[in-house]
Amino acid sequence: MDLLANVAVENKRRVCLVWEDLTVVASSVNNSPKRELLKGLSGYAEPNRIMALIGPSGSGKSTVLAALAGILPTNVSMTGNVLLNGTTRSTGCRDISYVTQEDYFLGTLTVKETLTYAAHLRLPADMTKNEIDKVVTKILAEMGLQDSADSRLGNWHLRGISSGEKRRLSIGIEILTQPHVMFLDEPTSGLDSAAAFYVISSLSNIAHDGRIVICSIHQPSGEVFNLFDDLVLLAGGESVYFGEATMAVKFFADAGFPCPTRKNPPEHFLRCVNSEFDSVAALMQSKKEASSSWNSLMKMTTEEIKSELIKYYRNSIQSENARKKIREIKQSEEPLVEKIYDTSRLKQLCTLTNRSILNMTRDIGYYWLRIVFYILNQ
Ligand SMILES: Nc1ncnc2c1ncn2[C@@H]1O[C@H](COP(=O)(O)OP(=O)(O)OP(=O)(O)O)[C@@H](O)[C@H]1O
């Protein structure tokens, strides 16, 4: 069996991700008290599904992604477990990939060149040039980048590909190694609604090809929201909702906070838990506009709605189902659950960060070599 086929077979293995009682605490600075960034979150992610992580700014979305990917900064400590099954590797680079908000590229290279260099660096050394070309062609097609394959990426003085295409290229580079789990921090930030839809559609296709995709996202449009299978809504580091995205509207209605007709559901969910709206409401009150405000219709402050929802979620059927599913995944004999890191192996939390730095350094080194060869050949 050739290497490409090997990669494909491995990719079909079912891998589930489970997190239990995830608590992240930031150490005190200048005698300030320790701060709990995440408060005992539990959940799971299955292959063939794409999960949205939403919540107000500062609710802990990036911290959850970093905790699950094992790249928390050193000034925070984590308790709880993150479990990944079906693999004997711990945080091996083929299992987990993390796409940051920023795209780091050399603007003078084309899309295809960038993918090809990344493929040469990241794929097994014994893959032939022909095999690598096949992988690159497949990814260009998968990410809808065929038409811009020969376009330069661009930089401050060179007009290049669009921001949406850059995002898709970043994702394409990460799927080169066929990771089982992909984390993405705000993959649609700075994109217009059409580009955001395209990026999330591509991610949905990647997920439905047997992978777990989890991404944080700010205010998704209704169309983008409909692409997600699962939803985690966070507020102040706590779970307000965890479950199927399509069931969230019913959850809010059952909890006593129904989504008004014609309102975009994620907008309503965020409106319910974003305490910043309280200060906006206070400002409006001072302008005598409060009679029409949302809070006055609800007769509660956002802080009160948030605590009500957190309490409701804890005793909800969604929370019970999540606990049951976590138990089932952990008990399933085939494949085995492997603990990828826990509080006793905190050092492993740094491995991904180190690997990213290593990859970046290697990438830069390779690009410089390429430039030197180019100059010598002129
Ligand atoms: N390393 C850290 N040390 C101390 N506090 C931190 C650290 N990382 C994050 N925080 C704090 O934890 C809270 C959650 O941060 P996080 O970046 O996870 O939120 P977020 O939901 O991703 O926000 P945004 O949508 O604005 O990116 C914030 O109040 C932030 O200031």
UniProtKB/TrEMBL annotation:
It holds the Pfam family ABC2_membrane_7. It comes from the Eukaryota. SUPFAM superfamilies: P-loop containing nucleoside triphosphate hydrolases. Residues 17-261 form the ABC transporter domain. It is a multi-pass membrane protein. One of its GO terms (cellular component) is membrane. Coiled coil: none annotated. The keyword Membrane applies. Gene3D superfamilies: P-loop containing nucleotide triphosphate hydrolases. One of its GO terms (molecular function) is ATP hydrolysis activity. Keywords: ATP-binding, Membrane, Nucleotide-binding, Transmembrane, Transmembrane helix, Transport. It is found in: Membrane. The keyword Nucleotide-binding applies. Belongs to the ABC transporter superfamily. ABCG family. Eye pigment precursor importer (TC 3.A.1.204) subfamily. This is ABC transporter domain-containing protein.
